[in-house]
């Protein structure tokens, strides 16, 4: 017997998932699928309602076998085995247990998916900027090493001593380390 609040949530999930029967599946129903049925239906399931940790784990394993990148949101410590299987694990900063937060890849501090959605749009630009800067900096450094001809007197000069850390290096290192 469903409680009224659960039924309202279930209907809301169905509407959000496009209203199709296959888009929302309860954990008990998915648990009773054969492995072949689960592999067939995993493509059309958008929401798994009232599911246990084992249900989530089975779904994640099916999605991984099909080659999907899997992201899961967890709250409790029972979901840690599922977190170990997924590509990206999310936990809620307020509702999640400490074990779930430590095991997940990202913690949504304010428990709002809108925060995640807003920051996801910024990430690709930052990544491209970092890659571009890395490419430019590495290229310039490589160009400097390639084009500069080494001086003959530096190459022919004998080694300073058997150790790399000389007295001069120690004199510079100690004051800097004290700060």
UniProtKB/TrEMBL annotation:
One of its GO terms (molecular function) is P-type calcium transporter activity. Keywords: Magnesium, Metal-binding. InterPro entries: ATPase_P-typ_cation-transptr_C, HAD-like_sf, HAD_sf. GO terms for cellular component: plasma membrane. Residues 123-174 form the Cation-transporting P-type ATPase C-terminal domain. This is Cation-transporting P-type ATPase C-terminal domain-containing protein. It comes from Malus domestica. The lineage of its organism: Eukaryota, Viridiplantae, Streptophyta, Embryophyta, Tracheophyta.
């Amino acid at each position: 017997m469903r409680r009224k609040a659960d039924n309202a949530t279930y209907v809301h999930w169905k509407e959000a998932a496009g209203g199709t029967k296959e888009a929302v599946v309860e954990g008990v129903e998915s648990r009773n699928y054969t492995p072949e049925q689960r592999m067939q239906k995993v493509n059309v399931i958008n929401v798994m309602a009232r599911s246990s940790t084992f249900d989530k784990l089975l779904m994640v394993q099916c999605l991984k076998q099909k080659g999907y990148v899997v992201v899961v949101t967890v709250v409790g410590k029972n979901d840690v085995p599922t977190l170990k299987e997924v590509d990206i694990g999310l936990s809620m900063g307020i509702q999640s247990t400490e074990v779930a937060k430590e095991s997940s890849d990202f913690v949504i501090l304010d428990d709002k998916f809108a925060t995640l959605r807003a920051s996801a749009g910024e990430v690709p630009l930052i990544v491209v900027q970092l890659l571009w800067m890395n490419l430019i900096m590495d290229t310039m450094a490589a160009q400097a090493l390639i084009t500069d001809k080494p001086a003959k007197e530096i190459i022919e000069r004998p080694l300073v001593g058997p150790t790399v850390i000389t007295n001069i290096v120690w004199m510079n290192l100690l004051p800097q380390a004290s700060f």
